[in-house]
Structures are given as structure tokens and as C-alpha cells.
Amino acid sequence: MDERLQVNRKNWNERTPVHAASESYDVEGFKSGRITLNSLEREEVGDVSGKTLLHLQCHFGLDSMSWARLGARVTGVDFSDAAIELARSLDDELGLGARFIHSSIYDLADALDEEFDIVFTSYGVLCWLPDLDGWAAAIYRHLKTGGTFYIADGHPSMGVFEPSESGDMLPAYSYFYEERLFEGGEPSYAGSQIIESPVYEWQHSLGEIVTALIGAGLTIEFLHEFPFSGYRAHSMMERGEDGWWRFPERNDSFPQLFSIRAKK
Ligand SMILES: C[S@@+](CC[C@H](N)C(=O)[O-])C[C@H]1O[C@@H](n2cnc3c(N)ncnc32)[C@H](O)[C@@H]1O
Questions:
Q1: Could you tell me the distance, in angstroms and rounded to a whole number, from the CA of residue 249 to the centre of ligand 1?
Q2: Label partner for 257 (CA 20 to 30 A): which of 61, 92, 240, 251?
Q3: Cα separations (Å) of 164 from 134, 159, 172, 173, 245?
Q4: Residue to mutate, 11, 57, 103, 110, ligand 1, most ligand atoms under 8 Å from C-beta
Q5: How far is residue 211's CA from residue 205's CA, in Å, rounded to a whole number?
Q6: Which long-range contacts (CB under 8 A, 24 or more apart) does 183-187 make?
Q7: Nearest to 56, CA basis, from 139, 131, 112
Q8: Does residue 252 come out as left (phi exceeding 0), alpha (psi in the -120 to 50 range) or beta?
Q9: What domains can be seen in the chain, in order of their start residue?
Q10: Alpha-carbon distance 14 to 30, whole Å?
Q11: Whose CA is nearest to atom 26 of ligand 1?
């Protein structure tokens, strides 16, 4: 495995128990029957009952098992051993019948020889991937002809701005492809505990994302952009009653989330 991915896997193994204990993942609520998916992806993916669904970068499986609760036959994939171990133990406890595979997306063809009706991935996924052509090839490889690929993720414009001391958002990073190494010593997006290990992130422009999917052979049905975020990307953001996070001012002036649906 690429050395940078090994660094990231260690980081995700450290984050997993912190996330599992956090209020935002609310594992106890999930055990009581909560569906963790948003109305956006539920509506845009459509009815999954009886369909086979491959969930890429499934973390410890709450969204995967939510699709199972909605009737899909689910396979989740993640490269973090801690995340897959926890996903399997939650699924055993709850009897939801999801299957979890421990693999990097880039090595998935070695671990899985199947095609699915739906390939799904969401919220905080592309920034951990150095190479989108390899990602799109894995999607194409594991999708049935006529099958649906769906992604909802943070919009690339969110990777550009940082809040200044006065609270204004200022451009701090490139919009275009860039590798970034963060040294650790910061809390994750869920839970307050410090994550000590370093992590690589990659910025991908919207053009790069769409072009990778087209280049792999997929046909794009829609690309939607939204002026709210699926997570608290900056400390000043507030959560609305609809569950989405927004900036307190001028919150509708730039895209913070996108979704794409494509067919093979
Ligand atoms: C932010 S989480 C996904 C979030 C998911 N929507 C959730 O909230 O549960 C990102 C996941 O990507 C996984 N990941 C990062 N790089 C990966 C790779 N190359 N192959 C497979 N999984 C990877 C991490 O282990 C982590 O579980």
C-alpha cells in the first residue's frame, strides 16, 4: 500500500473509537433504530429494497447498516481495521445482515469479485484519496451494467477557505489538486479528544471529480450543488432544524455540498 495511505490508515484507526464514543455518531441511538442517512441521499438514491449496495469508505458502518434497515443487501468497504472490526461487531449485535470488507479502495478488486446494483459513498470521502482515476475505476469495476453510482460529499470550494480572526472566510488553499499533510494534535470532526497521528488530505476540483467518473465510462445523470454542509466544517457554523450546517451570514453565497448520480 502507498506509504501515505498507511499513514492515513493509522490515523483512521485512532479516530474510530473516538468517533464511536461521540455524540454526533450517537451509536446508542443507532442501536435503538435510528437511520443515519439524510433525506438528500435517501431521495436521490431512491428505493433500495431488494437491491445490492456497495458502500465505499463506510467507516464503522452506521450508514451501511441504515441502508440495510431500508431493505438493501449491503457490503461496506473501509481500509481501517478498527472501523471494520467495529462495524462487524455492531452488525452481529443488531442482526442487520450487512457484510464488511477490510480493503483499500485501490486494492478492492483483490478482495471482491462482484458487481452491485448501487455503489454509494458519502460525506468526507474524496479528500482521503490521492488518485480519483483509480477510485472511479473501482466504482466502474463493481457496478452492474445499468447500475447506479451515487456520491454526496463536501464541495471542493470548502477546501479553499479558512476563517480569519475576525470570522471572515479568506482563501487559504488551492481549489485545484493539492496534497496536504497535517501533523496531528487536533481533534477530529466528531468527539473532542486529540488525534495525535498525522494525516494526508487531497483537494480535488469538481472538474477533476466529474472527469474521473466520465473517464471510467460512467454516464452522469446529475450534478447538484447545495449552499449548506453535511457537517460542521468551521466552528462558526450552526445546525438548522433540518440537520444541515450553515454559516450565520451570507450562507447561500457559495456551494458547500455536491451530489452526483451516474449510470454504468
Ligand atoms: C469521513 S469517513 C466516511 C464517513 C462516513 N460517511 C461516516 O460518517 O461514517 C472516511 C472513511 O474513509 C476511509 N478511507 C480513507 N481512505 C481510504 C481508502 N484508500 N480505502 C478505503 N477506505 C478509506 C477511512 O478509514 C474512513 O472510515
A1: 31
A2: 61
A3: 36, 15, 10, 13, 19
A4: 57
A5: 10
A6: 184/11
A7: 139
A8: alpha
A9: 3-263 (3.40.50.150)
A10: 22
A11: 59
- Indicate the pTM of the whole model: 0.96
Ligand 1 environment, Cβ below 6 A: 5, 8, 12, 57, 59, 62-63, 78-80, 83, 104-106, 122-125, 128-129
CA distance 34 to 50: 20
Q: For ligand 1, what atom is nearest to the CA of residue 123? A: 6
Q: Tell me the pairing of strands 194-195 and 245-246.
A: unpaired
Chain centre distance of CA 169: 24
Which of 14, 15, 37, 59 for mutating ligand 1's site (highest number of atoms within 8 Å of CB)?
A: 59
The rounded distance, in Å, linking the Cα atoms of 8 and 235 is 24
Region of 29 on the Ramachandran plot (φ > 0 left; ψ -120 to 50 alpha; else beta): alpha
